Amino acid sequence: MYSDPIKIYFLFSLLFVISSSIKSNNVIYLDDNITIPIGNSLEVLEDKTGVLELKDVLDLEFTSLNTKVPNLGISESSFWLKYTVTNKTSNPNLKIELSLPTLDKVNFYYFSDNKWNVIKSGEDFVFHERVYNDPNYIFDCEVPESKTRTFFLKVSSSEGIQLPIILGSTKAIYEHQKNRDLLSGIYLGLMIVIIIYNLFIYFSVRDRSYIYYVVYVILILLTQTSLQGYPFQYLSLIHI
Asked: What is the model's pTM?
């Protein structure tokens, strides 16, 4: 006679455990040979004033984003991002990479030596002060084996804010960068070949349409490389 209530109790208990695990925003890193996107595990807090400091938001409620590449749109607000990492590998040297070079400000907060520390970056800061010589934003996330650590980001931009963020070991992040740079190099090489070929045709036949096409291709190339952060990186290095 008690079997049905007992079954119902265990059913609700099971559903509670499942729902709790689904709501958990903890990033569990299991394999230091790969990178993983963490957009689904990000929590966000909008700061419409742009003046809040980390101590002001530590106890505030964040909202889960639950999407692989969060899109916060165009806004004058600053956005606080929170994520928690549990490291199940023996490699404590983890990193995140935020692949949106056009952000104006990117502040990374981590807890070390019994205090919160901040690394400030973004297009509002000179490039050579970055920890890593890369157009994307890369930050160290030191998490010992079987430990859990929480990190914060504060981002703002006059342009659209998307958050393609990955987590990985140093080796995995570098492999990801190598593949990205290879594809970018192939794209750049093809565009240069197209430009040179059409210039050659122009000087052969003197048809202005080829020059117009060359200008068009150059503008596309400049736009794409600007979105990838390369002009900001190399022009900043020239002025050091």
From this structure: 0.76
Phi, psi of 183 (to 5 degrees): -65, -40
CA distance 151 to 167: 12
How many other CB atoms are found less than 10 A from the CB of residue 139? 22
Residue tagged 């192939």 (tokens):
186
What CATH number labels 23-176? Answer: 2.60.40.2380
Contact 129, 123 (CB under 8 A): no
Helices (H), 60-111: none
Identify the residue whose tokens are 């996330």.
Answer: 141
Instruction: Please give the Cα distance from 98 to 96 (Å, whole number).
Output: 7
pLDDT tens per residue across span 59-76: 999 999 989 999 999 999
Q: Domain-by-domain residue ranges, the chain?
A: 23-176, 183-238
Q: Which residues contact 109 (CB under 8 A, 6 or more apart)?
A: 54, 116, 117, 118, 151, 152, 153, 154
**Which of helix, strand or coil describes residue 80?**
strand
Bridge pairing between strands 93-98 and 105-112: unpaired
Phi-psi region of 165 (alpha: psi -120 to 50; beta: other; left: phi over 0): beta
Contact (CB, 8 A) for 127 and 237: yes
Half-sphere exposure of 144 (CA within 13 A, CB side): 3
Radius of gyration for the chain, computed over Cα atoms and rounded to the nearest angstrom:
23
Q: Give residue 150's pLDDT.
A: 96
Query: Residue 54 corresponds to which tokens in the numbers above?
Result: 């980390």
Read off the amino acid at residue 45: L
